[in-house]
Amino acid sequence: MTAAVATPPVAVRGPAFGSTLTGTGRLLRFMLRRDRLRLLIWPLGIALLYAGSLGEYVILGDDPEAMAVRAALMTTPAMIAMAGPGYGVDNYTAGAAAANELILWILLTLAVMSILQVVRHTRAEEESSRSELMRAGAVGRQAPSVAALLQVLIANVIVATVSGLVLVAYEFDAAESFTMTFSIALGALVFGAIALVAAQAMEHGRGATGASLAVLGAAYAIRTIGDIQEEHGSALSWLSPIAWVQQTRVFVDMRWWPLGLCAVAILLLIALATVLGSRRDFGAGLVAVRGGRADAAPTLTGPLALVFTQQRMGLMWTALGLGLMWFATGSVVEAVPEMAESVADNPVYAAILGQSEDLVRTFLGVFGLYVGLGSAAFAVAMTLRAKGEEESGRTELALAKPVGRARWLASGLFWAAFGTVVVQVSGVLTLWAGAISSGVEEPGFLDYLELALAYLPALAVMVGLAAALYAWVPKATGIAWVLFGYMFVVGLFADLFDLPDWARGISPFWWVGDPMLEGVEASHMWGLSGVAALLFLLAFMGFRRRDLPSV
Hints:
Layout: H1 24-34, H2 36-60, H3 64-73, H4 77-82, H5 94-121, H6 123-127, H7 130-135, H8 143-169, H9 174-201, H10 205-229, H11 241-246, H12 258-279, H13 303-330, H14 336-342, H15 347-353, H16 359-383, H17 385-392, H18 394-399, H19 405-437, H20 445-454, H21 456-472, H22 478-493, H23 501-504, H24 515-518, H25 522-545
Helix pairs in contact: 1-8, 2-5, 2-8, 5-8, 5-9, 5-10, 8-9, 9-10, 9-12, 13-16, 13-19, 16-19, 16-21, 16-22, 19-20, 19-21, 21-25
Transmembrane segments: 39-60, 102-122, 143-170, 182-201, 256-276, 314-333, 363-384, 408-432, 452-472, 479-497, 525-543
Keywords: Membrane, Transmembrane, Transmembrane helix
Protein name: Exporter of polyketide antibiotics
């Protein structure tokens, strides 16, 4: 007999640390390729925003009286809320104006971009089950999160570099220019890291996005309250990452150390996300999902109620957030006549405001355009939610029930259009309320109401265009966002750039005119309404003809 040879037990070793990051490079390359168009649009959009604003500061910098009036505005509570604590107002230069008035809005924009990108490539991928298929290969547990954060880092660095070059092109100091743009990028990365933590805690992509945006909103509110309490910010301000970026005081008294708070916060948030990610089950979140009803409520008997349930929170927070901003904007209208006297000979303001003698109405017309642009962004975003539903596979499930394609699409378009009306009308009315609170009683309520309603046909065109693109060529829905950016340029800088009428006419808002000064041209309203109706018809025709899914 042969004796059995005992096989010694094999020691089972835990996974090496590096194995949790296996495949990070490949995932990063895939994400960059997948989002190459987005990564092109963001730097270009931010660069255009800088370019459109910096010329004004450069020209005003040669007018001490105009800069003194602008500096005085920066000390009002409304402007502190809308911009920041206001450094260098005693000797207000073009650089100080650019930093005080641009940092907050560029930071908010890049923070939203960072949040959306991180959630898109982490929690949203898990929710769609694509991440599970990917993890079946040689991909470490932490690789998707690290790759997503690296992609956001690359995107912010590109934006910061391009923006810094634009500032230098306008002859701002190079060192301070790049300090400003890279500090904004670092601040945006803080919120990207917050989104990474939320992606571990929440079970659904919308929950992670909502929680991250809620933190961003809280940071804005804390910064605002803290800055209003005390000149150049109080102790409360330092609880907000937004304040850390503004405290660099570029173009006034530049200092680097507040950016160390951003770096420490990013490292701590990444460590927290790593711990949370290793303690949860794949596909699950750490926050328990609230149990729902055993059966659907009687009101959820069709797609119309379903879409409302999906979009109601987005509508509420958009209307509330933009409404607060427009109220603050309206509260500074009382200072318009004084400021207008000091900039009467300024070519930038002359191009934007025209030759009207009623400067209050003229400024309100410009503010009304901003309200319309905010409503247009909401209109496009809500309309294209239908694309997200199709990508997730929920559209096919809905259409498997006794629900026709036309009914399903009509439900989404109805609430997108309804929400756009709410955002537009509430925005203009809060602008009116802000003006009333500052003692400006003229124009009256009916003038504001006409301003709000005048933009509705143009907004209907935006909803119809986004719907038609989704119905016929889903991959081309980005054209709606391109048109949105073009509308911004035409609305504010058409005269400055001396654009011909045919180029202006591409923008639906150009046909609205200036309701505060010239009233509403009925033929233009009917024309825009006709275009919108045609686009809606094309949307329904296209959606009935194409295969699902094809996005």
